């Protein structure tokens, strides 16, 4: 029997590595198991987020946005850039360098904090034992506590089986070495819109096929409609109510069959990206006698503190209920490490922000107006367009709006939804407001720096009671 640990974490993604570091900081003897192998055959940390998700996609989004700015926007500012071109291979190399720096950084953090890194695939056995397998060799470790942070993988669908280089998932879409002329994207969710935006900016004719009839139903519909309009203006052809029924490879092209309200249709692409969601990764994770229960959707069943059905065994991140977001996983990891160390810890699941890193960005936290009304809550809301913002004008970023949703009776902030430049940064104001139980009046009485994009949030809060300064008000001051 190998060493015994106070805590063994399975998975070194943003949930697992954060949990491991926090636990070690709290004095627990901690190990973290990871099986991810990079192109060079080395074990790397960071999970989907750092290796093939959040970080590499943002590198491509930023590069492609700057390319579009240089093409179309610099001239308005008086900048004469001449003809610009994109070296896709160089863009990809930069993305890979960023990923390598960050994943290597986690290994350094483990060493600095005294976390033992175990290489291989982890499996939970009975009696809180963890089996680690690599290259045919197995070792079993004992732990007082286990945290499962195995993450998720892209969902595949039968009509479009993955075909190397032609039909790919989100991982494959980050590896194109040239811009496809005609690109299809199945799914108008966060990943589909981000990847579609990258290649649209670089010259692809992008068609997004979405089976649902509504666009971004989790976002307030005023913001969702504005976002759809802006993306369409940029060149994304988003087809709602388009259910993919089949595909065929012909002469290195992908012929996709789909059905909409008008009947059966076909469309041909050079590349197809399948972005229909992700599923929890539990393959080979649980031994037959582990005792950990899964729910009907394949997620590990946990309570509000991420405890599984086995005392001392926890699960966090994409493998459990709730939004599949890196920051949600990290906060759960911190909460669980604190609990294991004997501290009291809670997590507010009502105040988890979401961001879509298109341009402009889309960000939200809490309820949207339609959800609040469906829950029987009488709401008041205020919104403010960036077209009326001095900083937005200076930034050449006047598209979008900020919206604040409140309980009409108490004025408490129920949600905030933003589409605009830096929305992902501004949404933190809504998260903090909700975390402290703030009212719209609290935001309205706050002194915001001028000129900033965040002033739109201030004006939206003022607009809840018809008191916005820089737009025509429907209500008279009281």
TrEMBL record:
Protein's organism: Onishia taeanensis
Family from the record: Belongs to the class-I pyridine nucleotide-disulfide oxidoreductase family.
Subcellular location: Cytoplasm
GO cellular component, one term: cytoplasm
Active site per UniProt: 450
Major enzyme class: oxidoreductase
A Pfam family of this chain: Pyr_redox_2
EC number: 1.8.1.4
FAD/NAD(P)-binding domain sequence ranges: 5-333
Cofactor: FAD
Binding-site list for FAD: 58, 122, 318, 324-327
Residue span(s) of domain Pyridine nucleotide-disulphide oxidoreductase dimerisation: 352-461
Stated name of the protein: Dihydrolipoyl dehydrogenase
Cofactor note: Binds 1 FAD per subunit.
């Amino acid at each position: 029997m190998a060493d015994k640990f106070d805590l063994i974490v399975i998975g070194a993604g943003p949930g697992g590595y954060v949990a491991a570091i926090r636990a070690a900081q709290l004095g627990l003897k901690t190990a973290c198991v990871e099986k991810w192998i990079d192109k060079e055959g080395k074990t790397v940390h960071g999970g989907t987020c750092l290796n093939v998700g959040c970080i590499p996609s943002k590198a491509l989004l930023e590069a492609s946005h700057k390319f579009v700015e240089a093409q179309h926007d610099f001239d308005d500012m008086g900048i004469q850039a001449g003809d610009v071109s994109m070296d896709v291979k160089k863009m990809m190399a930069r993305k890979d360098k960023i990923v390598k720096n960050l994943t290597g950084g986690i290994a350094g953090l483990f060493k600095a904090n005294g976390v033992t890194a175990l290489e291989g695939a982890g499996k939970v056995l009975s009696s809180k034992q963890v089996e680690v397998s690599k290259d045919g060799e197995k070792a079993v470790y004992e732990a007082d506590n286990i945290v499962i942070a195995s993450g998720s993988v892209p969902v595949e669908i039968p009509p479009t089986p993955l075909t190397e280089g032609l039909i790919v998932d989100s991982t494959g879409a980050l590896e194109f070495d040239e811009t496809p002329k005609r690109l299809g994207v199945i799914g108008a969710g966060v990943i589909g819109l981000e990847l579609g935006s990258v290649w649209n900016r670089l010259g692809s004719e992008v068609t997004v096929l979405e089976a649902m009839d509504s666009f971004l139903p989790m976002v307030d519909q005023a913001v969702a409609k504005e976002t759809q309009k802006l993306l369409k203006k940029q060149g994304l052809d988003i087809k709602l109510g388009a259910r993919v029924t089949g595909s065929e490879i012909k002469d290195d092209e992908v012929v996709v069959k789909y059905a909409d309200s008008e009947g059966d249709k076909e469309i041909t692409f050079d590349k197809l990206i399948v972005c229909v969601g992700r599923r929890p990764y539990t393959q080979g994770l649980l031994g037959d006698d582990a005792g950990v229960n899964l729910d009907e959707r394949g997620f590990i069943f946990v309570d509000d503190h991420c405890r599984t059905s086995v005392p001392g065994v926890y699960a966090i991140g994409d493998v459990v209920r709730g939004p599949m977001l890196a920051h949600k996983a990290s906060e759960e990891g911190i909460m669980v490490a604190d609990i294991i160390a004997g501290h009291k810890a809670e997590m507010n699941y009502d105040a988890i922000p979401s961001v879509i890193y298109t341009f402009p960005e889309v960000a939200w936290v809490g309820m949207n107006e339609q959800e609040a009304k469906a829950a029987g809550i009488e709401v008041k809301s205020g919104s403010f367009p960036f077209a009326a913002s001095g900083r937005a004008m200076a930034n050449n970023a006047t598209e979008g709006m900020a919206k604040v949703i409140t309980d009409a009776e108490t004025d408490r902030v129920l949600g905030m939804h933003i589409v605009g430049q830096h929305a992902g940064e501004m949404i933190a104001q809504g998260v903090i407001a909700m975390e402290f139980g703030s009212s719209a009046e609290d935001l309205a009485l706050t002194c915001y720096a001028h000129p900033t994009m965040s002033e739109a949030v201030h004006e939206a809060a003022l607009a809840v009671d018809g008191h916005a300064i820089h737009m025509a008000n429907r209500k008279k001051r009281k």
